[in-house]
């Protein structure tokens, strides 16, 4: 796998490069955001530091996401909750705070890759109600006839709920199915993505929260064949 390591700390970059190389990965290191954006097309995976010398890493993430769906894990010393939320909302697949063990990083990369290869949607119905139209086959979402763009993970969560409207999915079930990692049950990642779905669609009731139980697609939502 070709890994783009965006890190300006020479010692950490060298250690991560060596660890990834031992596992057979090919690593290209970029110390600046502009170099990372230029090299993104050759990457299968991106590890992104936020403290870059030429651009804030969150802005680099936003620019990267506008052009690519490549898996991204943010690796940073920023541990404030607002930074974690901004990173996840900006399209990161995971967020890892320094210092961390290399084994944990590798495990998280493997989890991101696993869930990226699991077919969460396939040819199937269109789910529609209250002006919302979710096409599970094409992964398109429309609200009142206008297209709405979700992040890949936001749509994965919505698609899981839409496959069986009205069926309650527990937090653990969603995290296992979409993230492939039950360790995220202690994180805010799922909450962030559900909040993103509600905000972007303008339909707070599209995803219902059942306190102590889980989530389901709004009970007013129905399934159609096209």
TrEMBL record:
Keywords: DNA-binding, Phosphoprotein, Transcription, Transcription regulation. The modification 4-aspartylphosphate is found at residue 49. InterPro entries: CheY-like_superfamily, OmpR/PhoB-type_DNA-bd, Sig_transdc_resp-reg_receiver, WalR-like, WH-like_DNA-bd_sf. Residues 124-219 bind DNA. The keyword Transmembrane helix does not apply. Pfam families: Response_reg, Trans_reg_C. It comes from Streptomyces coffeae. Residues 2-113 form the Response regulatory domain. SMART domains: REC (SM00448), Trans_reg_C (SM00862). This is Sensory transduction protein RegX3.
């Amino acid at each position: 796998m070709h890994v783009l390591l965006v890190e300006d700390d020479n010692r950490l970059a060298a250690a991560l490069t060596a660890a990834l190389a031992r596992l057979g990965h090919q690593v290209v290191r970029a110390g600046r955001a502009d170099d990372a954006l230029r090299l993104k097309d050759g990457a299968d995976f991106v590890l992104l530091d936020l403290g870059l010398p030429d651009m804030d890493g969150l802005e680099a993430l936003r620019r990267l996401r506008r052009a690519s769906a490549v898996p991204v894990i943010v690796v940073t010393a920023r541990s404030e909750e607002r930074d974690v939320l901004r990173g996840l909302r900006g399209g990161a697949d995971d967020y890892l705070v320094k210092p961390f063990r290399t084994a944990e990083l590798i495990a998280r990369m493997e989890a991101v890759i696993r869930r990226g290869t699991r077919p969460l949607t396939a040819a199937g119905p269109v789910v529609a109600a209250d002006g919302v139209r979710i096409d599970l086959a094409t992964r398109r979402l429309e609200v009142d006839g206008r297209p709405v763009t979700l992040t890949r993970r936001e749509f994965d969560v919505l698609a899981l709920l839409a496959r069986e409207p009205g069926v309650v999915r527990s937090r653990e079930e969603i995290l296992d199915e979409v993230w492939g990692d039950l360790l995220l049950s202690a994180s805010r990642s799922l909450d962030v993505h559900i909040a993103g779905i509600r905000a972007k669609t303008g339909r707070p009731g599209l995803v219902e929260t059942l306190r102590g139980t889980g989530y389901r697609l709004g009970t007013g939502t129905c399934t159609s064949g096209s």
